[in-house]
Amino acid sequence: MKSKTVFISRSVFSNSPLRVNANYELIGKSLIKFDEVIVDTFPKADWYFFYSRNGVYFGLRQLLDRSILDSIKIGTMGKGTAKQYEDMQDRVPEFIGSGDADHVSREFLKVAQSEKVVYVRAKNSLKSIQENIGEKVEGTDLVTYNNYINGEVVIPSTDIAVFTSPMNVDGYFQNKKVDTARILIALGKSTKKAISQYEDAEVLMPVEPTEASLKILIDSILQS
């Protein structure tokens, strides 16, 4: 029986649930390039909300005196971003979202309403949380990195393709050399919506936008 292949649009660590007892070949590579954006000042606020692991990485590596964050509450979009923050700062964020923009917006508003929030993000971010919350909090943008499609990546043809962001969707479907995977999986509603702009096909989603939940979904697909 031919081994099944799975593509995911980001790098996957060796200890990831996706690599544990995997009965498929996993190919993980981002279709996006990232460049640091120099930050002049880190504003004072009640909260710093990080959208992504890259936001944490490119932000904290520029912050020479990280002790200024000690008095600021930290929020993250999901568990992966929270883990990146904990690894770099040895501190667990006060708010860890589920990764789903609508749910995160509702839950974060419960703890941050009427407070000042700095949204740490990419230059080409969808800004989903601040768009959902609107003026219910006093928000400020802090762009720490630029993100754009890497047209030099060679995209493999696989049985399953997993997309981690709308921009990665664009990078995949705008590449004329790739054969679209038969099974498409999206992590998050905005990513699923982006796929629908290219493909009129069923797009699956794991119960949670985590690698553990994704592994369960992939295993169930391959066993069916």
What's the short story on this structure?
The chain has 224 residues and is of the alpha/beta class. It has helices at residues 53-60, 79-89, 101-112, 128-133, 166-173, 189-196, 211-223; strands at residues 4-8, 24-28, 32-36, 47-50, 73-76, 95-96, 116-122, 138-149, 160-163, 183-186, 203-204. It is elongated and about 55 Å long.
What does the model show?
The chain is an alpha/beta fold. It has two domains: 4-31 and 154-223, Rossmann fold, CATH 3.40.50; 38-148, Rossmann fold, CATH 3.40.50.10090. Helix content is 29%, strand content 24%. The protein contains seven helices and eleven strands. The strands form two sheets. It has a six-stranded mixed β-sheet with strand order 3-8-7-4-5-6, sandwiched between helices. β4, α1 and β5 form a beta-alpha-beta unit. The chain is elongated and about 55 Å long. The two termini are 15 Å apart. The model has no long low-confidence stretch (mean pLDDT 94).
Largest sheet: 6 strands, mixed
What level of helicity do the residues show? 25-40%
The count of DSSP E runs of length 2 or more, i.e. the number of strands, is: 11
Instruction: Report the CATH topology name of the largest domain.
Output: Rossmann fold
Beta content: 15-25%
Query: Count of helices?
Result: 7
Distance between the termini: 15 Å
Tally of discrete structural domains: 2
Identify the strand order in the major beta sheet: 3-8-7-4-5-6
User: What structural class results from the helix and strand content?
Assistant: alpha/beta
At CATH level 2, the architecture of the largest domain is 3-Layer(aba) Sandwich
Q: Could you name the CATH class of the largest domain?
A: Alpha Beta
Average pLDDT taken over every residue:
94
Q: Round the Cα radius of gyration to an integer and report it.
A: 18 Å
Low-confidence stretches: none
What is the molecular shape? elongated
How are helices and strands ordered from N to C? EEEEHEHEHEHEEHEHEH
